[in-house]
Amino acid sequence: SMMCASISEADKYAKHIDSQVFRLIKANTPGPFTFILKASTEVPKLFNAKRKEIGIRIPDNNNTQAVIEALGCPLVGTSVHDEDDIIEYTTNPDDIYEKWQEHIGAMLDGGYGNNKATTVIDCTEGEPVVVREGLGEIQ
User: Fold this and answer.
1) Which residues contact 109 (CB under 8 A, 6 or more apart)?
2) How many H helices and E strands in the chain?
3) pLDDT tens-place string over residues 73-109
4) Residue 10 φ/ψ, nearest 5 degrees
5) Does the pLDDT of residue 49 top 80, yes or no?
6) 3-class DSSP state of 50
7) Which of 4, 45, 47, 134 is spaced 20 to 30 Å from 14 by Cα?
Protein backbone atom coordinates (compact mmCIF):
# COMPACT_ATOMS: atom_id res chain seq x y z
CA SER A 1 0.00 0.00 0.00
CA MET A 2 0.96 3.63 -0.40
CA MET A 3 0.89 6.00 2.54
CA CYS A 4 -0.22 9.47 1.48
CA ALA A 5 -0.34 12.74 3.41
CA SER A 6 -3.89 13.59 2.31
CA ILE A 7 -6.89 12.60 0.21
CA SER A 8 -5.81 15.03 -2.50
CA GLU A 9 -2.43 13.29 -2.74
CA ALA A 10 -4.16 9.88 -2.79
CA ASP A 11 -6.36 11.12 -5.65
CA LYS A 12 -3.29 11.27 -7.89
CA TYR A 13 -2.83 7.49 -7.57
CA ALA A 14 -6.50 6.45 -7.62
CA LYS A 15 -8.41 6.41 -10.91
CA HIS A 16 -11.52 8.15 -9.60
CA ILE A 17 -12.67 8.67 -6.03
CA ASP A 18 -16.45 9.09 -6.20
CA SER A 19 -18.35 11.13 -3.61
CA GLN A 20 -19.40 8.09 -1.52
CA VAL A 21 -15.82 6.80 -1.25
CA PHE A 22 -14.49 10.33 -0.68
CA ARG A 23 -16.85 10.76 2.31
CA LEU A 24 -15.80 7.33 3.67
CA ILE A 25 -12.10 8.18 3.40
CA LYS A 26 -12.58 11.69 4.82
CA ALA A 27 -14.51 10.37 7.85
CA ASN A 28 -11.90 7.72 8.65
CA THR A 29 -8.57 9.38 7.96
CA PRO A 30 -6.01 9.97 9.08
CA GLY A 31 -6.33 6.61 10.78
CA PRO A 32 -5.74 2.85 10.72
CA PHE A 33 -7.42 2.15 7.39
CA THR A 34 -6.25 0.91 4.01
CA PHE A 35 -8.61 1.68 1.12
CA ILE A 36 -8.30 -0.45 -2.00
CA LEU A 37 -9.00 1.78 -5.00
CA LYS A 38 -8.69 1.46 -8.76
CA ALA A 39 -5.19 2.58 -9.69
CA SER A 40 -4.53 5.60 -11.89
CA THR A 41 -2.00 5.48 -14.72
CA GLU A 42 0.61 6.88 -12.27
CA VAL A 43 0.79 3.59 -10.33
CA PRO A 44 2.22 1.35 -13.10
CA LYS A 45 4.91 3.99 -13.73
CA LEU A 46 5.95 3.88 -10.07
CA PHE A 47 5.96 0.10 -9.70
CA ASN A 48 6.85 -0.90 -13.25
CA ALA A 49 3.85 -3.23 -13.20
CA LYS A 50 0.33 -3.41 -14.60
CA ARG A 51 -1.47 -2.85 -11.31
CA LYS A 52 -5.22 -2.30 -11.52
CA GLU A 53 -5.72 -1.58 -7.80
CA ILE A 54 -3.74 0.20 -5.13
CA GLY A 55 -4.03 0.24 -1.35
CA ILE A 56 -4.06 3.79 -0.01
CA ARG A 57 -3.42 4.77 3.61
CA ILE A 58 -3.47 8.17 5.25
CA PRO A 59 -1.76 7.34 8.55
CA ASP A 60 -2.32 9.09 11.84
CA ASN A 61 1.33 8.65 12.86
CA ASN A 62 3.12 12.00 13.18
CA ASN A 63 6.53 10.55 12.23
CA THR A 64 5.16 8.94 9.08
CA GLN A 65 3.28 12.11 8.11
CA ALA A 66 6.45 14.19 8.64
CA VAL A 67 8.50 11.88 6.37
CA ILE A 68 5.81 11.92 3.65
CA GLU A 69 5.59 15.71 3.79
CA ALA A 70 9.40 16.15 3.84
CA LEU A 71 9.83 13.86 0.82
CA GLY A 72 6.89 15.40 -1.03
CA CYS A 73 5.65 11.99 -2.17
CA PRO A 74 3.92 8.92 -0.75
CA LEU A 75 5.73 6.07 0.96
CA VAL A 76 5.25 2.44 0.09
CA GLY A 77 4.71 0.43 3.24
CA THR A 78 3.86 -2.98 4.54
CA SER A 79 3.35 -4.75 7.82
CA VAL A 80 6.03 -7.11 9.08
CA HIS A 81 4.16 -10.37 9.49
CA ASP A 82 5.71 -12.55 12.20
CA GLU A 83 6.02 -16.34 12.04
CA ASP A 84 5.31 -16.51 15.80
CA ASP A 85 1.93 -18.05 16.75
CA ILE A 86 1.27 -15.39 19.40
CA ILE A 87 2.66 -12.21 17.83
CA GLU A 88 1.02 -11.66 14.46
CA TYR A 89 2.97 -8.53 13.50
CA THR A 90 6.42 -7.49 14.68
CA THR A 91 6.41 -3.88 15.87
CA ASN A 92 9.60 -3.67 17.95
CA PRO A 93 12.06 -1.61 15.86
CA ASP A 94 15.06 -3.49 17.28
CA ASP A 95 13.56 -6.87 16.34
CA ILE A 96 12.65 -5.65 12.86
CA TYR A 97 16.16 -4.33 12.28
CA GLU A 98 17.80 -7.49 13.65
CA LYS A 99 15.78 -9.75 11.36
CA TRP A 100 15.68 -7.59 8.22
CA GLN A 101 18.82 -5.40 8.37
CA GLU A 102 20.20 -6.82 5.10
CA HIS A 103 17.09 -5.54 3.32
CA ILE A 104 16.71 -2.16 5.05
CA GLY A 105 18.22 0.91 3.39
CA ALA A 106 17.10 3.30 6.12
CA MET A 107 14.98 3.00 9.21
CA LEU A 108 13.25 5.60 11.36
CA ASP A 109 12.74 4.27 14.89
CA GLY A 110 9.45 5.73 16.04
CA GLY A 111 9.08 3.24 18.88
CA TYR A 112 6.77 0.28 19.15
CA GLY A 113 3.84 0.17 16.78
CA ASN A 114 0.44 -1.39 17.26
CA ASN A 115 0.44 -5.14 16.60
CA LYS A 116 -3.08 -5.15 15.20
CA ALA A 117 -3.39 -4.63 11.45
CA THR A 118 -5.34 -1.87 9.72
CA THR A 119 -8.90 -2.30 8.59
CA VAL A 120 -8.90 -2.88 4.82
CA ILE A 121 -11.85 -1.65 2.75
CA ASP A 122 -12.25 -2.56 -0.93
CA CYS A 123 -13.74 0.42 -2.78
CA THR A 124 -13.19 -0.85 -6.32
CA GLU A 125 -16.73 -2.05 -7.11
CA GLY A 126 -19.99 -0.46 -5.96
CA GLU A 127 -20.55 -0.53 -2.19
CA PRO A 128 -17.32 -0.54 -0.13
CA VAL A 129 -16.61 -3.96 1.40
CA VAL A 130 -14.54 -4.64 4.53
CA VAL A 131 -11.92 -7.17 3.43
CA ARG A 132 -10.14 -7.33 6.79
CA GLU A 133 -11.34 -6.07 10.14
CA GLY A 134 -8.49 -4.50 12.01
CA LEU A 135 -7.70 -1.62 14.29
CA GLY A 136 -10.06 0.95 12.81
CA GLU A 137 -13.80 1.18 13.37
CA ILE A 138 -15.63 2.66 10.38
CA GLN A 139 -17.29 6.03 10.94
Assistant:
1) 93
2) 5, 6
3) 999 877 666 676 656 667 788 888 888 889 888 888 8
4) -60, -35
5) no
6) coil
7) 134
